Amino acid sequence: MASLYSTKVTASCGRHGSIRSEDGLLDLKLALPRALGGRGDATNPEQLFAGGYVACFENALLHVSRDAGHRFADDDIDVVAGIGLSRNEAGGFVLAAALVTIAGIDQQTAERLVQGAHAICPYSNAIDVAISVSVR
User: Which residue has the higher pLDDT, 40 or 75?
Assistant: First the structure.
C-alpha cells in the first residue's frame, strides 16, 4: 500500500525532554504531568495525541457528512477527546479515548455520521475508543 503522507519526529530524553519534527514546525519541550509526579510545566504525549486525534476525527466527520449530503461549517461541530492513560493486564501502558461530538442535527443522524467517521479515522483505528454523541 502506498503511503499518502509520512513525517518524522525525533524525541530526546523521553517525557522529560523535547520533540522536533524533521521540518522544524513542531519543536516542543515535554514534561511529565503533575498527576504522574512530574512538574507539568510543558505539554505531554497524551495532550499531543489528543490534539492530533480531535483534528483528524473532525476532518473524518466532515468528510463522511459531505458524502451523506450534509454540509457543516467547522464551527458547527465540536470534537473533544478525553485521553486516558492506564495499564493493561500485562502491565503495559494503554491509551483510551472518549469522544464527544456535538453537531446541529438530530441524534440518530449524528450517531450515524460519527460511526462513519470512527470507521475511517486512523486514530480511531489505533486505540480503544468509547464514543458519546450529543446534539445541540
Answer: 40
